């Protein structure tokens, strides 16, 4: 018997431990996220109390070792992202920023003191982090950033503005990337630092259940040990970004699965011309195209996850996954919206919410165009960016 949601039987490729992670996170999403996701989206609010609940679930920094982190496999982390984004991209985005960006940067590039101070509390959701790289005029071209840090005795003086920062105004700590005389460096900046302020981006029609902020640093004085000692240049920031992009490879398929499942259920129950619309050839063609792209995307995510667990994955391969799976997820969402007809634009169904959210996922953590050029350089050996 064919499972319409797992046509190729990919479940058999998972270990018992991986299935357990998927089951536990999926149950949390069904019990806590899905009953509230439409309301959070419509109101444009992120429930901050969810941070500690996600901490208890064990998904914050779950792929990191030590410091109260779970030390899970890359595939297990990917499955968690899949289930979280099946709930809402904004919730998966919170987990990605917390664990794959802010926590990963401290874990990989921080001092032992920084790790011990921040990581256990962040893993429990008691402290929230953000990752401040993009600026209003420098998104894809992060190397052009204007935010700077200069030495003043043993201290650092941080000055500048960051834009489009997820978790920004609810964060207890920001990982801030700034230009110095020695090159670009990363800094751990607590929220209470004098001169640090945050202002939310409003009137968003995408990722509405996620906080997006502008951060300002007005001559913030930081101690010498605020610097991430092992972070040298943009390569350090991009290493953390690859961790988040990998989660998106899986997460996008969670949103796609939700849209496909909604369209399939609707097509089997919606009656027009005396029969379910799923009996019409054009509707079946849409559903078949959706399940094919969904299963291909899942195979890609699983393959990249196995490569990552084996230590074989490369940055261009992560770009390949993010590029393909977000494109595919958007196409699935748009086709599902068409199957639902007028009902597809209401929050009674999850499709329009996922579709709007995926427009942000298409752009953040590297735009579709940038990832295209990354893959292009990998296959030609020629850079189109320099």
Q: Please, could you describe this protein's structure?
A:
With 386 residues, the protein is α+β, with helices and mostly antiparallel strands. It has 3 domains: 10-123, Acyl-CoA dehydrogenase/oxidase, N-terminal domain (Butyryl-Coa Dehydrogenase, subunit A, domain 1, Orthogonal Bundle); 129-232, Butyryl-CoA Dehydrogenase, subunit A, domain 2 (Beta Barrel); 235-380, Butyryl-CoA Dehydrogenase, subunit A, domain 3, CATH 1.20.140. 52% of the residues lie in helices and 15% in strands. It is built from 10 helices and 9 strands. The strands form 3 sheets. The chain has a 4-stranded antiparallel sheet with strand order 2-3-7-6, with helices on one face. It has a 3-stranded mixed sheet with strand order 1-4-5. Strand 2 (148-152) and strand 3 (155-166) form a beta hairpin. Helix 6 packs antiparallel against helix 7. The model has no long low-confidence stretch (mean pLDDT 97).
Secondary-structure map with pairings?
Blueprint: H1 16-43, H2 50-57, H3 74-87, H4 89-109, H5 112-123, E1 129-132, E2 148-152, E3 155-166, E4 173-180, E5 183-190, E6 196-200, E7 212-222, H6 234-269, E8 271-272, E9 275-276, H7 281-309, H8 315-340, H9 351-363, H10 368-380
Helix pairs in contact: 1-3, 3-4, 3-6, 4-5, 4-6, 6-7, 6-8, 6-9, 7-8, 8-9, 8-10
